[in-house]
Amino acid sequence: MVFRSYELRKNILRKVVPWETKQAYLDGVRELQEQWWKIKAIVCDGKRGMLWGLWDIPTQMCHFHQKQIIRRYITKTPRLEANQELKDIVNSLWDFSKKTIITRLDDWFSRYKLFLYERNSSNKLVHNRTLQAYKSIKRNLQYLYTFKDYEEKFEIPKTTNSLESTFWWMKQTVRVHRWLKKWRKLKVIEQNLWK
Question: Domain containing 95: what range?
Answer without folding.
Answer: 63-149
